[in-house]
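Subject: VIT1/CCC1 transporter family protein structure
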Amino acid sequence: MKYNATEDLLRSHQPEVIRKRLAQPPESQNISDAVLGGIDGCVTTFAVVSAAAGAGLPASVAVILGVANLLADGFSMAVSTYESHRAEQDYAQSLREMEEAHIDLVPEGEREEIRQIFINKGFDGEVLETIVDTICEDRKLWVDTMLVEEHGVNDQAYINPLASAGATFLAFLVVGAVPLLPFLTSALTLTQQFALSTALAALMFFMIGMLKSLVFNLPYLWSGLRTLAMGGAAASLAFVSGYLLRELFGLSGF
């Protein structure tokens, strides 16, 4: 049975449903890591292919350079993703420990910070004091509030750095391998291989853009075209660089 979207929205905002949902910790999502990995993988390998084509290098050279860059850059990006998330978690933990120490050393000062935060939000009088008392009675809530309101840092504990790195690496390899596929067949000329690789890379860029639109509720056509334009710009730069270097060193083109 197909329900009306408004009815589903109303049902999901019933008090008991909200209570259960908020009682659960945020789910770690790796969509953004996969999207970033996919875009970077396609740009990396197609840039290599474009440079090789622009320089008039054989298909075997394009494949060798493409695979080498795919593995090395994919691993590097996965490590960077892991370290980035770990650094965010370490930073949040250091702030948490600092606020814990401040509550122990200057509790009234930290309490006044909570009061000033909610004064700035427009609360006053008994309502303000009730809010301050409620927050400061729960030490974890007190620290969490200070992290968000004073430092602008959310709890990073729900993020799994290893899963994020894995999603980045897998998307990088899968999407990045697509522009190399035409160069694995000898049935096509080098010009045909590059043309097919270009079409496949453009398709990957557009599909990644559409995936972003579906996940983050963006206009799918505009998102696809924007991602395609960015990828195309990177590939064009690589092709022109390869062509200019070919001319500079007097190599024969294809």
